[in-house]
Design the sequence.
């Protein structure tokens, strides 16, 4: 194990990487702040489209969103703790992962202190076992705050960089790698794992369809839990699930073509 691969500490056969906002949680905490105490949902949605279509970088769009929020950072945390809820299936999935030596690693374009506060509220002390790789923040002398991006990339946090050291391991020691996500911040990680779970009805699916990245759709973590358990139990493989997901996507696309004729 090296400093680039801390999740190997327990010699796992599987590692579960996941986005946080809108994936583990029912709503994106940064979107919630922007919509309610920032410049609102219309401008935010406009920028999401700009990012998906390549006219804005995620980094610049995300900073633009956060710059519209002028409440103190601690007030932001309280607002989110009062309003953000957990995906109905995540707590059970996390308990299962802990019992089966499956490290859960959060890769987020949000900010570490917000994520940690929300996880502590939503799942309690067990949250300390979740590795978080995310952006941070700085409190200024006047009480305002700024995001400090994790790296210099156009994503602000290129999530693929955390996954690649695991992906590059020799086949005889490399664990099976999962990733779950929902949106534009997950674009960089979408091609890096053995099985990508993309949330139904969200922007990540649009990207995967356009770039022909294999994925399987999930609605809640209950879906993910069932699939991961079948893989761990040897009933199927990540490759078989990914292939099935690609076939289902091809069938959906054919049905769309037929309905437009």
Sequence:
């Amino acid at each position: 194990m090296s400093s680039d691969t801390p999740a190997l500490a327990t010699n796992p056969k599987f590692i579960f990487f996941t986005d946080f906002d809108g994936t583990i949680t029912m709503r994106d905490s940064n979107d919630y702040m922007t919509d309610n105490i920032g410049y609102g949902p219309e401008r935010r949605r406009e920028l999401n489209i700009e990012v998906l279509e390549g006219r804005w970088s995620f980094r610049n769009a995300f900073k633009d969103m956060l710059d519209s929020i002028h409440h103190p950072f601690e007030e932001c945390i309280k607002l989110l703790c009062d309003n953000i809820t957990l995906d109905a299936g995540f707590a059970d999935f996390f308990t299962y992962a802990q019992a089966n030596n499956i490290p859960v690693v959060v890769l987020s374009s949000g900010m570490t202190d917000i994520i940690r506060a929300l996880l502590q509220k939503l799942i309690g002390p067990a949250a300390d076992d979740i590795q978080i790789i995310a952006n941070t923040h700085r409190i200024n002398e006047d009480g305002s705050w700024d995001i400090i991006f994790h790296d210099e990339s156009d994503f602000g946090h290129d999530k693929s960089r955390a996954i690649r050291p695991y992906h590059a391991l020799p086949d005889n020691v490399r664990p099976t790698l999962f990733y779950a996500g929902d949106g534009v911040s997950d674009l960089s990680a979408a091609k890096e794992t053995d099985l990508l779970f993309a949330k139904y009805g969200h922007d990540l699916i649009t990207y995967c369809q356009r770039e022909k990245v294999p994925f399987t759709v999930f609605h809640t973590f209950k879906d993910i839990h069932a699939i991961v358990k079948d893989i761990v139990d040897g009933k199927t493989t990540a490759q078989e699930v990914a292939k099935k997901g690609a076939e289902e996507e091809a069938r959906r696309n054919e049905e769309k073509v037929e309905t437009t004729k």
